[in-house]
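step=encode ok
step=design start
structure_in=
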């Protein structure tokens, strides 16, 4: 399981999805990962408004947002890349991904628990240090409550306890997840036609496939200090601001650690909080 500590965290590649115009997010994630000896490949995200209707899923619900359509296409393109490049495995993350500074030690424990859940001996040699009994490792999501009583548990940062368990759905958000070559093919086929947000479709895929998740998540979504409109390209938080950057459920944020060590002046990393306009 030593491969967990390499530059791609035990996967053949790490693919980061990023809208080309969101240079701010690429700048931050590039600095953070380079400081932690983690190597990324970048995948251009797609705006829903850029897709011709002929390329939409046949059953796409037109009541859904264009941002959700773009998210579907962006993740589908990342999976296609895994297939086209014949990667044995890949960790796919979004460009606001963040994790604890102790991620590598957390992943070592996660890999052990994943093997135990899949009945893979700890000393068995497998292509992946995480064993060979999984289709998706959902490392960053936002809807799973603490796991069932038979979960595998390992200590996290501070007083956190991480629950590792198989899941058959009911999850949301795609902050970070891993696939194999085989599961990328199955998942891409599953996603060719959807009628709901893509993360919900991933959850339904897990109903009949081997998905393992962890709660609290190991990969979170960083929210930077400043205008809340920066949280999303489709945000409507006009006039509101966040005083400090934060990442939910991450005790020692790698992004905040990077900013503290080599970022702008501390005075420029805080914003006065603002109330919504008209309040």
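sequence_out=
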């Amino acid at each position: 399981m030593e491969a967990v500590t390499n530059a791609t965290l035990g996967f053949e590649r790490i693919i980061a999805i990023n809208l080309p115009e969101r240079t701010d997010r690429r700048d931050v994630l590039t600095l953070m990962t380079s400081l932690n000896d983690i190597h990324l490949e970048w995948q251009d995200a797609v705006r829903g408004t850029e897709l011709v209707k002929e390329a939409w899923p046949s059953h796409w619900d037109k009541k859904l947002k264009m941002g959700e359509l773009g998210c579907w296409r962006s993740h589908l393109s990342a999976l296609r890349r895994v297939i086209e490049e014949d990667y044995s495995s890949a960790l796919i993350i979004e460009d606001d991904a963040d994790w604890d500074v102790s991620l590598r030690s957390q992943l070592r424990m996660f890999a052990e628990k994943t093997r135990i859940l899949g009945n893979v001996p700890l000393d068995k040699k497998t292509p992946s240090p995480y064993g060979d009994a999984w289709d998706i490792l959902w490392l960053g999501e936002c809807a799973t409550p603490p796991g069932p009583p038979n979960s595998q548990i390992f200590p996290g940062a501070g007083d956190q306890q991480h629950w590792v368990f198989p899941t058959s759905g009911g999850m949301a958000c795609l902050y970070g997840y891993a696939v194999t070559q085989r599961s990328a093919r199955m998942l891409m086929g599953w996603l060719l036609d959807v009628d709901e947000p893509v993360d919900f479709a991933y959850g339904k895929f897990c109903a009949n496939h081997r998905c393992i998740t962890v709660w609290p998540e190991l990969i979170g979504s960083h929210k930077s200090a400043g205008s809340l409109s920066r949280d999303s390209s489709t945000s409507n938080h006009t006039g509101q601001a966040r005083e400090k950057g934060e990442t939910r459920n991450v005790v020692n944020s790698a992004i905040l650690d990077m900013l503290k060590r080599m970022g702008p002046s501390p005075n420029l990393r805080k914003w006065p909080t603002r109330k919504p306009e008209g309040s």
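step=design ok
step=annotate ok -> Residues 274-279 have pLDDT under 50 and may be disordered.
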